[in-house]
Amino acid sequence: MLAGLPQGGASAQDQGRPAAKPCYLDGLKDAVDCYRFDLPLHHAGPGAETVSVFAAVLPARSARPQPDPLVILAGGPGQAASELAPLVDRIFDAVRDSRDIVLIDQRGTGRSTPLQCDLETDVNSLSALTDAVRACRAGFDLDVAAFTQENAVQDFRAVLDRLGYGSVNLWGGSYGTRVISHYVKRFPDHVRAFIADSIAPPDRKLFRFAPKAAGRAMDRLLADCAAFEPCRDRYPDLGDRLDRLMDRAAAGELAFSGPDPMTRDVDTQPLPLFLVANGLRGALYQMEGTATLPYVIARAAEGDLTPLAGLFSEGRVLPHQPLYFGATLSVLCGDELDRITAEEARAAGRDSFTRGSFYEFWAAACAGWDYTPFSRLPADQAEPLESDLPALLLSGDLDPITPPDMGAHLLGGLENGAHKVVPGTGHIASTVPCVGDAIVRFLAEPDARAAFDGGDDDSPDCAGTRARLKPFLGPNGRTVPAPEPPEASDKAVLIGMEARP
User: Fold this and answer.
1) At 438, is the secondary structure helix, strand, or coil?
2) Cis status, amide bond into 114, omega within 30 of 0
3) Which has the closest alpha carbon to 213: 426, 467, 472, 435?
4) φ and ψ at residue 156, rounded to 5 degrees
């Protein structure tokens, strides 16, 4: 334990923590301890400009809590940690028996100087996207190029210092795993252990791996449909139907005419490639959405675009997760876009149903946003992570953006890490109940190889009988019984644990 850290029953308040202001977070019935800090807009050579950073502490129930809290690093980029409070409370409730849980809204999100762009109006072309982003950018009288991962990591450490925490435990999901890598590089002596869920290694280029990952997830879905007789009979040649659908989208031949599936307003909307590809890709994030895709693809190929339009009717740009879009842009445009050329990005999408649309979407958005080129980033930000800290890595086998090979790659630099692949699961495996139980055990005793030992790992969700949700065979969902689960002898095939030798 580092010298000077609060011990056992010595509260961080005794170490000079500022007074909390009780407040409520959406989805939680009880008040939590809330704080606001004015921090430098630029941590390197700070000037007079500041940003306001919000933090909430869900206090431990113990009278003598452990000194090292669990800090939640949200994904996106562009998600606010405080808005994950209901999910955190459900997954990590047992953690609060002995530890505080700390939610810090990354700068640009939630209650930390939010950079919100309302793009829920129809953005049906890349040029319209650029114009909408440019109009949003004009509404912020500050340097949005300061809303980078480097400054965010410095914010997190500054907030934790002021709260009196020395060493901490980190949980990050998706983009939050990149923040973990960055934080561990900057402050290795201030980390006890970390859990990285749905892993984006810092040395893997987003615009190179994202189309391939989405293509892998879609190919798995198509293969599973072909192997499941009711799906195969209901949707024959589904892969060919998808190809024809994407060809028509790329040719500008798709337009949805009729009542909006959510609002019932009658309208006609073009459905360009980037919109169709992102709608399908977004549905792959959650297994409930994936179950609808055979029906959606088949109906669209037959000319009925209503189910397809339903995938993104509530938010035509980013349907799969709530984001503070300005914060997303500052990170992706400043930290990521220039890591790859347009030609490389389009080549990466050649074998994916998304084609080149993922890069083209973000390039068009970034054209309307001020950003700092990748060449100005800290030299080590995009280098592999090497650490001897205890590290539990989690991957969903069906993840459409951070598949298991990403976790295997990150594991290569972690001396005391282990990697768990959870079957039948998409993005963010921690939501599987027994995985949350394993995280609690890991935090109590940070041995990643043993985290999944000693619990009820014979439960259906964790021991290999967990499987993909069966596809909808009609507008009202499943019309035939699901097949029997696999025999126990299949468990070792369906879920595996990797560990460095």
Assistant:
1) helix
2) no
3) 426
4) -60, -45
Residue 456 pLDDT more than 70? no
Q: Give me the amino acid identity at 139.
A: G
Write the pLDDT tens digit of every residue in 72-98: 999 999 999 999 999 999 999 999 999
Closest C-alpha to 157, from 217, 102, 96:
102
Neighbours of 135 (CB within 10 A): 11
- How many other CB atoms sit within 10 Å of the CB of residue 186? 17
Cβ pair 363, 342 in contact under 8 A: yes
Nearest to 249 by CA among 277, 287, 279, 269: 277
pLDDT-based confidence at 441, cuts 50/70/90?
A: very high
The CB-based long-range contact list for 27-31 (8 Å cut-off, 24+ gap) reads 27/85, 27/86, 27/89, 28/58, 28/85, 28/86, 28/89
Q: Are 251 and 260 in contact (CB under 8 A)?
A: no
Tokens at 211, concatenated: 């189309």
- Cα–Cα distance between 417 and 485 in angstroms, integer? 31
- Whether 137 contacts 144, CB under 8 Å: yes
Tokens of 312: 């993104």
Could you give the CA distance from residue 192 to residue 217 in angstroms, rounded to a whole number? 34
The larger pLDDT score, comparing residue 428 to residue 485, is at 428
Query: In this predicted structure, what is the pLDDT of residue 391?
Result: 98
Burial state string for 207-219 with b = 16 or more CB within 10 A and e = fewer than 16: bbbbbbbbbbbbe
Task: Give the C-alpha distances (Å, rounded to integers) separating 281 from 114, 278, 285.
Answer: 26, 5, 7
Give the integer Cα–Cα distance in Å for 324 and 292: 27
Secondary structure letter of residue 252 according to DSSP: T
d(CA 1, CA 71): 18
Q: What's the rounded Cα separation, in Å, for the pair 179 and 198?
A: 13
Can you read off the two tokens belonging to residue 145? 């190029």
Rounded to 5 degrees, what angle do the CA atoms 316, 395, 481 make? 75
Q: What would the pLDDT profile of 187-238 be if each residue is shown by its tens digit?
A: 999 999 999 999 999 999 999 999 999 999 999 999 999 999 999 999 999 9
Q: pTM for the complete prediction?
A: 0.89
Is residue 235 within 8 Å of 292, Cβ to Cβ?
no
